[in-house]
Design a protein that fits this description.
The complex is a heterotrimer of chains A (100), B (167) and C (506). Chain A has 100 residues and is mainly α. Chain A is 77% helix and 0% strand. Chain A has one domain: Helix Hairpins (Orthogonal Bundle), CATH 1.10.287. The longest helix of chain B is centred in the middle third of the chain and has 26 residues. Chain B has 167 residues and is mostly helical. Chain C is an all-alpha fold and 506 residues long. Helix content of chain C is 74%, strand content 1%. A two-stranded antiparallel ribbon of chain C has the order 1-2. In chain C, strand 1 and strand 2 form a beta hairpin. In chain C, helix 2 runs antiparallel to helix 3, helix 12 packs parallel to helix 16 and helix 13 crosses helix 19. Chain C is globular and about 75 Å long. The model of chain C has no long low-confidence stretch (mean pLDDT 89). Classes of the chains: A mainly alpha (100), B mainly alpha (167), C mainly alpha (506). Chains in contact: A-B, A-C, B-C. The interface between B and C is medium-sized, with 28 and 39 residues.
Chain lengths: 100, 167, 506
C-alpha cells in the first residue's frame, strides 16, 4: 500500500470505540481500559503519519506517550485501589459523596 | 489486492473485534485480555509501518507491564465481576447519547480521512527506525522530553507508594 | 537541533525547572534522615523558601533574552512570557507549601511537598513549551502530580473521590487532545509550533482536517482552564481536594492552561495567516467566555458551602480571563500585533497573576474556618468578624477584589480585560461581563454579610490562627493591596512579557 489512509481509518474506529466505552461503562477499571484503547489508537495514528512523512518524529512521540501511559496506569490504579478500599466498589455511580 | 492489504484487513478485523469484546465484556479479566489482543495486533501493524522498535515496546511495555498491572489490580480487588445493575434513572439517556456521539465522531473522522488523506502518498525513502536511530534521536533533539519523562515516572512512583502504603 | 554541538549554556533556559527538580529531590531525600527536627513545618518552610530561591537564581543566572530564543532542539522558547508565568507558578507553589503546614487533614510528609514542587515544575515547562511533544509531556507531568495531590487525603472518601474524578476526566481529555495532536502532526509532518503553522497555512493543506484537529486539541485546553462545557469536573474536585491543593489547582493549574493555550494558538494556529482552523478558534472564544461566566456565576449563587461557591466562582473567573483571550484573538486576526494584541495578552497575564494571590488567600481563609468551625458552610462563617476581626477583614479584601469592586486589584484587572475587549468592538461581551460582575456581588457579599451581620453562639470562643497560615493570609491580602496601590510596574512587566510573545508573529 502506498497510502496510510487505511491505518488512519482503523485508528479513528478504535478511538471512537474507546470514546463509546468511556461514556457507557460504569466501572472505573473499565473506563480506564477504554482510555488505554484511545491512547493506543492515537499511537497508531502517529506511527502511520510518521511512515507517511518518512520521519522518525512521530515514532518518538509514541515512545513518550508509552511512558506517559505507564505513569498514568500506576497513578490511576493507585487511585482506584484507594477508592475501592473505602467503598468496596469500583463503580463510578458509587462516587456520590460529591454531588455533581 | 496486495498481500500487505490482505494482512492489514485481517489484523484490522481482529483488532476491531477485540475492541468490541472489550466494550461488551461482563468480566473485567476478559476485558483486559481482549485489550491485550488489541495491543498485539497493533504491534504487528507497527511492524508493517516500519516501526520495529515500537512494535517490541508495544508488546513488552503495553501488553506486558501495563496490562499485567491491570490484571493484578483487578484480581487484587476481586473486582472481575462487573455488576450489571440497571443504570440510574438520571443516566438512562447516557447510553444512546454516548453511542450517538461515538458514531458522529466516527462518521466525521471517516469523512475527513477518506476525502482528504487518500491522495497523500507515503514518502519514498524508507527510514531506519531501529533502537540505534531512536536512541540517537532520544539523546539528541529529544533530550529535554526524555528527562521530563523520567520526572513524570518519578511522580507516578511517589504517588503509587503514598496512596497505597499501609498506615 | 543540537546533538552534534550541544551547548551546555542552553540548559540555563530551563534553569527554573532544573532548580525545582533538584529541590524536590532534596525535600524527598530529607525524609530518609528521619530526624525529629524535620517535621512538616520545617519541610514546608524549606520547600517554600527553596522554590523562591530557585526563582531568584533563575532571574540572576538566566534572564530571558529580549526576543526570546528557541532552544534545546526547538522544544522550548525562553522568553519573558514564560518567565513571568514561571514566577506566578512558583509563588503559588510556595504559598501552597506554606498553607499545607497547618492544614492538619493532610498528613504532609516530604512526598506532599515534593509533589507540589514537581507540579510547579511541570507548569513552568508548559509555559515555555514550543513543541507539541513537550506540550503533551509537560501537561501530563503537572496533571499527574495534581491528581495525586487532589487525592492525597486517602483516608477521607471525599478526597479519594476527588482524585479519582480528576484523574478519569483528566486522562480522557488529555487523550482526546493527544489524538488531535496526532492529526496536527499528520497534517504538517512537524512538531515545532512555527513549522506547524507554516505547513498548515499552505494552500494544499486539507483545512477541514485542521479544524477537526484543532477542536480535539481545544478539549484538552478547555479541561485545564475549566471552560464550559469541560468545566463539570471542577466543582467536585475543588470541593473534595485538600483546601491548599484546591487553591493551587484553581490558580496555578488554570494559569498554566491559559499560558500554554495562548502560545500554542498564536504560534501553531496563527491568526495572521487565516485558515478555517484559526477562524474557528477565534470565533469560538467569545461564546465560550460568555457561557463560562454565566454558568460559573449562576451556579455559585445556589451553593451553601463556601468552598463549593468559590469553586464555581473560579469557573466564572476563567470566563473573565477568556474575555481577554477573545480580545487578543480578534486583535491578532486584525494583524494588530504591536498595539492591541500585546495589550490584551498583558491584561490576561495581569489578571491571572492578581487572581492567583486573591484566590489562594480566599481558600486559605476557607480552609482555616473549616478546621476551626468544623465545616465550610455559610453558617460556619457567621460572626467571624467578632471572633477574628483581622481574618474577616482579609476575607472582605479578597472577596471584594474577586468581585471587582473598585479600587481593588480585581477591579483594575477587569478594567484591563474589558478595555481590550472594547478596543476590539466587543461591546456585547463587555456588557455580559459587567452583568456577571453584578451577579457575583450577590454571593460574594453573602459571605461578608454572614461574617459581619449574622450572629453565632460561638462568638465568644477564641479563634486562634496558626502562625504560618496567618502569614499566608497576610501576604496574599497585602499583595492585593500593594498591587492595587502600585499597579504600574506590574502592568509594565505584563506588557513586556506580552510583547516577548508576539515578536514571533512579525
Amino acid at each position: 500500500m502506498n497510502t496510510v489512509s487505511p491505518y488512519i481509518l482503523l485508528s479513528a474506529i478504535l478511538f471512537s470505540m474507546g470514546v463509546i466505552g468511556f461514556l457507557t461503562r460504569r466501572n472505573a477499571i473499565m473506563i480506564f481500559m477504554s482510555v488505554e484503547l484511545m491512547l493506543n489508537s492515537a499511537n497508531l495514528a502517529f506511527v502511520a503519519f510518521a511512515h507517511q512523512w518518512g520521519q522518525l518524529d512521530g515514532q518518538m512521540f509514541v515512545f513518550f506517550v508509552m511512558a506517559v501511559a505507564a505513569a498514568e496506569v500506576a497513578v490511576g490504579l493507585a487511585l482506584i485501589v484507594t477508592v475501592f478500599r473505602s467503598k468496596k466498589s469500583a463503580n463510578v455511580d458509587d462516587l456520590h459523596q460529591l454531588k455533581g | 489486492m496486495t498481500s500487505e492489504l490482505i494482512v492489514f484487513i485481517v489484523l484490522a478485523i481482529i483488532s476491531v473485534l477485540a475492541a468490541v469484546g472489550l466494550l461488551s465484556s461482563r468480566n473485567a479479566v476478559y476485558a483486559a485480555l481482549f485489550l491485550i489482543l488489541n495491543f498485539a495486533t497493533v504491534a504487528v501493524l507497527y511492524l508493517m509501518l516500519n516501526a520495529p522498535f515500537l512494535a517490541i515496546i508495544q508488546i513488552s511495555v503495553y501488553a506486558g507491564a501495563i496490562m499485567v498491572l491491570f490484571l493484578f489490580v483487578i484480581m487484587l480487588l476481586g473486582a472481575e465481576r462487573l455488576n450489571q445493575a440497571a443504570p440510574q434513572p438520571g443516566l438512562r439517556w447516557q447510553r444512546p447519547l454516548a453511542i450517538g456521539l461515538g458514531a458522529l465522531l466516527l462518521i466525521q473522522a471517516a469523512y475527513v480521512f477518506i476525502t482528504r488523506f487518500n491522495s497523500t502518498t507515503v514518502a519514498p525513502n524508507l527510514i531506519q527506525a531501529g533502537p540505534m536511530e531512536i536512541g540517537l534521536k532520544l539523546f539528541g533533539p529529544y533530550l529535554l522530553p526524555f528527562e521530563v519523562t523520567s520526572i513524570l515516572l518519578l511522580v507516578a512512583i511517589i504517588g503509587a507508594v503514598v496512596l497505597t502504603r499501609e498506615k | 537541533m543540537f546533538g552534534t554541538q550541544f551547548n551546555p549554556s542552553d540548559l540555563l533556559a530551563v534553569a527554573p525547572e532544573i532548580g525545582l527538580t533538584f529541590w524536590a529531590f532534596f525535600i524527598l531525600s530529607l525524609d530518609f534522615l528521619k530526624l525529629p527536627q524535620l517535621n512538616r513545618r520545617v519541610l514546608g518552610m524549606l520547600s517554600a523558601i527553596g522554590v523562591l530561591v530557585v526563582m531568584v537564581l533563575a532571574t540572576v543566572l538566566a534572564p530571558p533574552a529580549d526576543k526570546g530564543a528557541v532552544l534545546l532542539g526547538g522544544m522550548i522558547r525562553h522568553d519573558l512570557y514564560a518567565y513571568v508565568f514561571d514566577a506566578v507558578f512558583i509563588v503559588a507553589g510556595a504559598l501552597t507549601c506554606l498553607l499545607s503546614i497547618d492544614f492538619k487533614p493532610v498528613r504532609a510528609g516530604g512526598e506532599f511537598f515534593a509533589l507540589v514542587i514537581l507540579a510547579t515544575m511541570g507548569m513552568c515547562l508548559m509555559a515555555s513549551a514550543n513543541d507539541i511533544i513537550l506540550l503533551f509531556l509537560a501537561t501530563e507531568t503537572s496533571s499527574m502530580a495534581l491528581y495525586l495531590l487532589a487525592g492525597f487525603m486517602r483516608d477521607t472518601p471525599r478526597s479519594a473521590e476527588a482524585g479519582m474524578k480528576y484523574f478519569i476526566f483528566g486522562a480522557v481529555s488529555s487523550t482526546i487532545m493527544l489524538y488531535g495532536l496526532s492529526l496536527v502532526y499528520g497534517l504538517s509532518g512537524q512538531t515545532g509550533y512555527e513549522k506547524i503553522a507554516a505547513a498548515l497555512t499552505a494552500p494544499e493543506s486539507p483545512h477541514m482536517v485542521g479544524v477537526f484537529a484543532l477542536l480535539l486539541v481545544m478539549i484538552g485546553f478547555a479541561f485545564k482552564t475549566t471552560a464550559v462545557p469541560f468545566h463539570f469536573w471542577a466543582p467536585d474536585v475543588y470541593d473534595g481536594a485538600p483546601t491548599p491543593v484546591t487553591g493551587f489547582i484553581s490558580t496555578a493549574s488554570k494559569a498554566a492552561g491559559f499560558a500554554i493555550m495562548i502560545r500554542f494558538l498564536l504560534y501553531a494556529f496563527s491568526p495572521l495567516a487565516p485558515t478555517p482552523a484559526t477562524q474557528v478558534w477565534v470565533a469560538m472564544m467569545q461564546p465560550v467566555a460568555i457561557l463560562t461566566m454565566f454558568l460559573g456565576n449562576l451556579l455559585a449563587i445556589t451553593q451553601t458551602s463556601v468552598k463549593r461557591m468559590l469553586a464555581y466562582s473560579s469557573i466564572a473567573q476563567a470566563g473573565y480571563i477568556m474575555i481577554g483571550v477573545t480580545a487578543l484573538a480578534y486583535a491578532a486576526s486584525r494583524g494588530e500585533v504591536n498595539g492591541a494584541e500585546p495589550n490584551a495578552i498583558a491584561g490576561v497575564i495581569f489578571y491571572i497573576a492578581t487572581y492567583m494571590f486573591t484566590n489562594i488567600g480566599a481558600f486559605a481563609i476557607v480552609g482555616l474556618v473549616a478546621q476551626r468551625a468544623g465545616g465550610d458552610n455559610l453558617k460556619d462563617f457567621s460572626g467571624l468578624a467578632r471572633r477574628s476581626p483581622y481574618l474577616a477583614l482579609a476575607m472582605v479584601a479578597v472577596l471584594l477584589s474577586l468581585t471587582g469592586a473598585p479600587p481593588l486589584v480585581g477591579f483594575v484587572g477587569k478594567l484591563f480585560l474589558f478595555r481590550s475587549a472594547v478596543d476590539e468592538n466587543l461591546i456585547g461581551l463587555v456588557v455580559v461581563g459587567v452583568i456577571n460582575v453584578l451577579i457575583s456581588v450577590f454571593y460574594y457579599l453573602g459571605v461578608v454579610r454572614a461574617m459581619y451581620v449574622e450572629r453565632s453562639p460561638n462568638e465568644s470562643r477564641p479563634f486562634p490562627i496558626p502562625a504560618v497560615t496567618g502569614w499566608v493570609v497576610l501576604i496574599t491580602s497585602a499583595a492585593v493591596l500593594i498591587i492595587t496601590l502600585v499597579s504600574t510596574p506590574f502592568w509594565d512587566l505584563a506588557l513586556a512579557a506580552a510583547k516577548s510573545l508576539q515578536t514571533i508573529l512579525n
